[in-house]
Amino acid sequence: LSLTIAACLAVGADCLGYQNVTGRSMKSIVYDAEDDVAEMSARLNAICYTMQVDFEKVRPQVALLSGKDGRSLSLVKGGPQMSLNMEDFEYLIKAAADPEVAMLAMGPLNSLHELNGSDNIVMAYVMKALNALAGRTNVALLLQHHTSKPQGGMFKGDSQHISQGAEQIFNAGRRTLNLLPPQEDDIKNYAL
Protein backbone atom coordinates (compact mmCIF):
# COMPACT_ATOMS: atom_id res chain seq x y z
CA LEU A 1 0.00 0.00 0.00
CA SER A 2 2.71 2.49 0.96
CA LEU A 3 4.63 1.87 -2.26
CA THR A 4 1.47 2.22 -4.35
CA ILE A 5 0.67 5.57 -2.73
CA ALA A 6 4.30 6.65 -3.15
CA ALA A 7 4.16 5.79 -6.87
CA CYS A 8 0.94 7.79 -7.27
CA LEU A 9 2.46 10.77 -5.48
CA ALA A 10 5.59 10.51 -7.60
CA VAL A 11 3.61 10.99 -10.82
CA GLY A 12 1.03 13.39 -9.37
CA ALA A 13 -1.81 10.89 -9.78
CA ASP A 14 -4.94 10.34 -7.73
CA CYS A 15 -4.83 7.20 -5.59
CA LEU A 16 -7.43 4.88 -4.05
CA GLY A 17 -10.22 7.34 -4.70
CA TYR A 18 -8.36 10.26 -3.11
CA GLN A 19 -7.54 13.27 -5.26
CA ASN A 20 -3.96 14.51 -5.48
CA VAL A 21 -4.86 18.16 -4.97
CA THR A 22 -1.36 19.37 -5.87
CA GLY A 23 -1.60 17.80 -9.32
CA ARG A 24 2.18 17.51 -9.40
CA SER A 25 4.90 15.06 -8.52
CA MET A 26 5.68 14.78 -4.79
CA LYS A 27 8.33 12.78 -2.91
CA SER A 28 7.83 10.02 -0.36
CA ILE A 29 9.95 8.28 2.23
CA VAL A 30 9.10 4.62 2.80
CA TYR A 31 10.67 2.79 5.77
CA ASP A 32 10.14 -0.96 6.05
CA ALA A 33 11.63 -2.91 8.94
CA GLU A 34 10.98 -6.29 7.31
CA ASP A 35 11.99 -5.95 3.63
CA ASP A 36 15.39 -4.98 2.28
CA VAL A 37 15.81 -2.16 -0.23
CA ALA A 38 16.21 -4.59 -3.16
CA GLU A 39 12.83 -6.17 -2.37
CA MET A 40 11.16 -2.81 -1.89
CA SER A 41 12.61 -1.57 -5.18
CA ALA A 42 11.40 -4.69 -7.02
CA ARG A 43 7.90 -4.20 -5.61
CA LEU A 44 7.90 -0.53 -6.60
CA ASN A 45 9.00 -1.53 -10.11
CA ALA A 46 6.13 -4.04 -10.33
CA ILE A 47 3.66 -1.39 -9.14
CA CYS A 48 4.93 1.03 -11.79
CA TYR A 49 4.59 -1.67 -14.45
CA THR A 50 1.00 -2.34 -13.37
CA MET A 51 0.19 1.39 -13.27
CA GLN A 52 1.90 1.82 -16.67
CA VAL A 53 4.20 4.56 -15.38
CA ASP A 54 7.95 4.90 -15.90
CA PHE A 55 9.86 3.38 -12.97
CA GLU A 56 12.87 5.57 -13.81
CA LYS A 57 10.73 8.68 -13.18
CA VAL A 58 9.16 7.30 -10.01
CA ARG A 59 12.25 5.85 -8.30
CA PRO A 60 14.05 9.19 -7.64
CA GLN A 61 10.91 10.49 -5.96
CA VAL A 62 10.73 7.60 -3.45
CA ALA A 63 13.38 7.22 -0.75
CA LEU A 64 13.48 3.58 0.32
CA LEU A 65 14.78 2.93 3.84
CA SER A 66 15.13 -0.55 5.29
CA GLY A 67 15.52 -1.71 8.84
CA LYS A 68 16.65 -5.05 7.47
CA ASP A 69 19.76 -3.87 5.64
CA GLY A 70 20.02 -0.28 6.86
CA ARG A 71 19.20 1.72 9.95
CA SER A 72 16.73 -0.03 12.26
CA LEU A 73 14.39 2.54 13.82
CA SER A 74 13.08 2.32 17.37
CA LEU A 75 11.21 5.56 18.01
CA VAL A 76 10.00 4.79 21.53
CA LYS A 77 12.17 2.98 24.05
CA GLY A 78 10.77 0.60 26.64
CA GLY A 79 11.97 -0.18 30.13
CA PRO A 80 10.87 1.17 33.50
CA GLN A 81 10.42 4.66 32.01
CA MET A 82 9.31 4.79 28.37
CA SER A 83 11.02 7.55 26.42
CA LEU A 84 11.41 8.89 22.92
CA ASN A 85 14.49 7.95 20.95
CA MET A 86 15.31 11.48 19.87
CA GLU A 87 18.16 10.32 17.62
CA ASP A 88 15.73 8.35 15.43
CA PHE A 89 13.11 11.13 15.52
CA GLU A 90 15.69 13.70 14.39
CA TYR A 91 16.84 11.32 11.65
CA LEU A 92 13.28 11.19 10.24
CA ILE A 93 12.71 14.93 10.68
CA LYS A 94 15.89 15.63 8.74
CA ALA A 95 14.95 13.10 6.04
CA ALA A 96 11.52 14.75 5.60
CA ALA A 97 12.87 18.33 5.63
CA ASP A 98 12.66 18.60 1.83
CA PRO A 99 9.47 20.62 1.11
CA GLU A 100 8.73 18.25 -1.80
CA VAL A 101 8.23 15.31 0.62
CA ALA A 102 4.50 14.65 1.00
CA MET A 103 4.46 11.28 2.78
CA LEU A 104 6.44 9.34 5.34
CA ALA A 105 5.36 5.69 5.43
CA MET A 106 6.68 3.37 8.13
CA GLY A 107 6.04 -0.11 9.32
CA PRO A 108 5.21 -2.39 10.70
CA LEU A 109 4.16 -0.35 13.71
CA ASN A 110 5.26 -3.01 16.21
CA SER A 111 8.84 -2.66 14.97
CA LEU A 112 8.90 1.09 15.66
CA HIS A 113 8.72 0.80 19.45
CA GLU A 114 9.86 -1.46 22.29
CA LEU A 115 6.55 -1.48 24.20
CA ASN A 116 3.51 -3.71 24.67
CA GLY A 117 1.38 -3.00 21.60
CA SER A 118 -1.78 -4.18 23.37
CA ASP A 119 -1.51 -1.68 26.23
CA ASN A 120 -3.71 1.38 25.61
CA ILE A 121 -1.71 3.64 27.92
CA VAL A 122 1.65 2.98 26.31
CA MET A 123 0.23 2.97 22.78
CA ALA A 124 -1.39 6.35 23.46
CA TYR A 125 2.14 7.57 24.20
CA VAL A 126 3.51 6.02 21.00
CA MET A 127 0.71 7.41 18.84
CA LYS A 128 1.03 10.87 20.39
CA ALA A 129 4.75 10.80 19.55
CA LEU A 130 4.01 9.74 15.96
CA ASN A 131 1.37 12.46 15.58
CA ALA A 132 3.98 14.96 16.83
CA LEU A 133 6.38 13.62 14.19
CA ALA A 134 3.76 14.24 11.50
CA GLY A 135 3.29 17.77 12.82
CA ARG A 136 7.02 18.50 12.94
CA THR A 137 7.59 17.22 9.39
CA ASN A 138 4.34 18.56 7.92
CA VAL A 139 3.89 15.37 5.89
CA ALA A 140 1.24 12.68 5.75
CA LEU A 141 2.24 9.81 8.02
CA LEU A 142 1.21 6.33 6.88
CA LEU A 143 1.71 3.55 9.43
CA GLN A 144 1.58 -0.09 8.41
CA HIS A 145 0.25 -2.43 11.04
CA HIS A 146 -0.29 -6.19 11.16
CA THR A 147 -3.69 -7.80 11.46
CA SER A 148 -4.52 -10.43 14.04
CA LYS A 149 -4.78 -14.04 12.96
CA PRO A 150 -8.37 -14.70 11.83
CA GLN A 151 -10.48 -17.29 13.60
CA GLY A 152 -11.61 -19.99 11.22
CA GLY A 153 -9.10 -18.92 8.59
CA MET A 154 -11.07 -15.97 7.13
CA PHE A 155 -11.61 -12.36 8.16
CA LYS A 156 -15.23 -11.36 8.54
CA GLY A 157 -16.06 -7.84 7.43
CA ASP A 158 -13.88 -4.76 7.18
CA SER A 159 -13.20 -3.36 10.61
CA GLN A 160 -10.36 -1.64 12.41
CA HIS A 161 -10.80 -4.28 15.09
CA ILE A 162 -9.14 -6.96 12.96
CA SER A 163 -5.75 -5.38 13.59
CA GLN A 164 -3.44 -6.24 16.44
CA GLY A 165 -3.12 -4.23 19.58
CA ALA A 166 -4.64 -1.43 21.55
CA GLU A 167 -7.62 0.70 20.52
CA GLN A 168 -5.43 3.79 20.87
CA ILE A 169 -3.64 2.84 17.66
CA PHE A 170 -6.84 3.34 15.68
CA ASN A 171 -8.26 6.20 17.73
CA ALA A 172 -5.18 8.32 16.97
CA GLY A 173 -5.42 7.98 13.19
CA ARG A 174 -7.55 9.79 10.63
CA ARG A 175 -8.09 6.75 8.39
CA THR A 176 -7.89 3.00 8.75
CA LEU A 177 -7.45 0.98 5.58
CA ASN A 178 -7.54 -2.80 5.80
CA LEU A 179 -6.09 -4.94 3.06
CA LEU A 180 -7.95 -8.23 3.09
CA PRO A 181 -8.02 -11.28 0.88
CA PRO A 182 -11.07 -11.38 -1.39
CA GLN A 183 -14.17 -13.03 0.05
CA GLU A 184 -16.51 -15.26 -1.96
CA ASP A 185 -18.73 -12.31 -3.01
CA ASP A 186 -15.67 -10.36 -4.18
CA ILE A 187 -14.45 -13.30 -6.24
CA LYS A 188 -17.84 -13.56 -7.99
CA ASN A 189 -18.45 -9.81 -8.41
CA TYR A 190 -14.98 -9.01 -9.76
CA ALA A 191 -14.38 -12.27 -11.65
CA LEU A 192 -11.25 -13.05 -9.65
Give a structural overview.
This protein is α/β, with parallel strands linked by helices and 192 residues long. Helix content is 35%, strand content 14%. It is built from seven helices and six strands; from the N terminus they run H-E-H-H-E-E-E-H-E-H-E-H-H. Helix 5 links the parallel strand 5 and strand 6. The mean pLDDT is 86.
Termini gap: 20 Å
- Proportion of residues in helical segments: 25-40%
Largest sheet: 4 strands, parallel
Q: Structural class of the secondary elements?
A: alpha/beta
Record the strand order, biggest sheet.
2-1-5-6
Could you give the order of the helices and strands?
HEHHEEEHEHEHH
Number of helices: 7
Question: Which shape, going by the Cα principal axes?
Answer: globular
Number of strands: 6
Topology:
Elements: H1 2-11, E1 27-32, H2 37-51, H3 55-58, E2 62-66, E3 76-77, E4 83-84, H4 86-95, E5 101-107, H5 120-137, E6 140-143, H6 167-171, H7 184-189
Parallel strand pairs: 1-2, 1-5, 5-6
Antiparallel strand pairs: 3-4
In short:
The chain has helices at residues 2-11, 37-51, 55-58, 86-95, 120-137, 167-171, 184-189, and strands at residues 27-32, 62-66, 76-77, 83-84, 101-107, 140-143. By secondary structure, the chain is α/β, with parallel strands linked by helices.
List keywords for this structure.
single chain; about 190 residues; alpha/beta; four-stranded parallel sheet; two-stranded antiparallel sheet; 7 helices; about 15% strand; globular
